[in-house]
Design goal:
Order of helices and strands of chain A: EEEEEEEEEEE
Number of strands of chain A: 11
Distance between the termini of chain A: 37 Å
Largest sheet of chain A: 7 strands, mixed
Largest sheet of chain B: 6 strands, mixed
Largest interface: A-B, 22 and 22 residues
Strand content of chain B: over 45%
Oligomer: heterodimer
Structural class of chain B: mainly beta
Shape of chain B: globular
Number of helices of chain B: 0
Order of helices and strands of chain B: EEEEEEEEEEE
Helix content of chain A: under 10%
């Protein structure tokens, strides 16, 4: 099956620092990757959609200068939380879809970010 | 914008009882997907429904897509403790477009 990895699985950082989260499709080419945010006991909120080689499309209310997304290859997308603050603490999950998997999204294991 | 509503938010059942969660979209969907998220885990794809009125079964799970392609349901027969988790529906307005997730139904099963 299709596997998506995320790194790191958890990170604790000081307020004001930047954190980069990697999302990799391990055994398929991900033409599209999605970044979600999930607060405890809540649903997944889509932050942005990224297609390989093009700029990410951000959802309304998501600051693109704060959440930098790069999808440089068909197997890797990164999310950088710049100048993180405690309110950015959350569970960040990526998902990936490819041409061989009609509409199906494969989710990474998520990254728990805690900003002190 | 598109909204996907899911009820109930929580469901507690005794092992062996049935369970159903319902999903309603504010707009007509191209397809609807169902995911399961275990406590502490990430969402795992269960199924995708595409056709109006479609019904699909996976062992004890039955998925339905409404005739108008705006609602869907997931029914679990004779729940087991392994069914514990949060079930999310997610709808797409066009094929390949972004998914909008429902709020999820958290299922707990008492042995």
């Amino acid at each position: 099956g299709a596997v998506v990895s995320q790194h790191p699985s958890w990170v604790i950082c000081k307020s004001g620092t930047s954190v980069k989260i990697e999302c990799r499709s391990l055994d398929f080419q991900a033409t599209t990757m999605f970044w979600y945010r999930q607060f405890p006991k809540q649903s997944l909120m889509l932050m942005a959609t990224s297609n390989e080689g093009s700029k990410a499309t951000y959802e309304q209310g998501v600051e693109k200068d704060k959440f930098l997304i790069n999808h440089a290859s068909l197997t890797l997308s990164t999310l950088t939380v710049t100048s993180a603050h405690p309110e950015d603490s959350s569970f960040y999950i990526c998902s990936a879809s490819g041409a061989d998997f009609y509409n199906e999204q494969f989710f990474g294991p998520g990254t728990r970010l805690t900003v002190l | 914008g598109q909204q996907v509503m899911q009820i109930p938010q929580y469901q507690h059942v005794q092992e062996g009882e049935d369970f159903t969660t319902y999903c309603n979209s504010s707009t007509t969907l191209s397809n609807i997907q169902w995911y399961k998220q275990r406590p502490g885990g990430h969402p795992v794809f269960l199924i995708q429904l595409v056709k109006s009125g479609e019904v699909k079964k996976q062992k004890r799970l039955t998925f339905q897509f409404g005739e108008a392609k705006k609602n869907s349901s997931l029914h679990i027969t004779a729940t087991q403790t392994t069914d514990v988790g949060t079930y999310f529906c997610a709808g797409a307005e066009t094929s390949g477009s972004r998914l909008t997730f429902g709020e999820g139904t958290q299922l707990t099963v008492n042995p």
